[in-house]
Design goal:
With 141 residues, this protein is mainly beta. The chain is built from one helix and nine strands. The chain has one domain: Immunoglobulin-like (Sandwich), CATH 2.60.40. Strand 4 and strand 5 form a beta hairpin.
């Protein structure tokens, strides 16, 4: 009976290493992509209505349609009702290919939003992040 519990515990402990849909997002021998900074910051309040969401990654990333690339499904903003807030995903002029901007957002005053970055996103020469990143903020007047 003990061995069954240990095996079950190991199986549950390994579950977070799997990506969405059971895809193995950690390629052998490659470091995972890391998120170095994200603005607006977690829990930030009084954020300007014309703000852009900016993510800086540890290595070059690719903008495209695949689940391993940055697009409006893998890097998005969600309102309090769970609806996507549409914007454009693009590279920043500074530090291109590592700094990604979600711009052209239509934000409401005094509203809560959540930034979502899927764990399937890979760097040009790195494995996927491996976990979904979520961060929330609130706009000002």
């Amino acid at each position: 009976m003990k061995s069954v519990c240990v095996l079950l515990g190991l199986a549950l402990a390994c579950t977070p290493l799997l990506g969405c849909g059971g895809v193995d997002v950690q390629r052998e021998g490659e470091e995972p992509l890391k998120l170095l900074s994200l603005t607006p910051h977690l829990g930030e309040t009084d954020v300007a209505l014309d703000t852009e969401v900016v993510a800086v990654f540890s290595s070059k990333v690719v903008i495209g349609e695949e689940e391993t690339q940055l697009n409006d499904n893998t890097f998005c903003l969600i309102d309090r009702g769970g609806n996507p807030v549409h914007g454009q995903v693009g590279f920043s002029e500074l530090n291109q290919e590592r700094t990604v901007v979600l711009s052209g957002l239509s934000l409401d005053p005094s509203a809560s939003y959540e930034i979502s970055i899927k764990g399937t996103i890979e760097g040009e020469s790195t494995a996927a992040i491996g976990v979904e990143i979520r961060s929330s903020f609130t706009t000002g007047q």
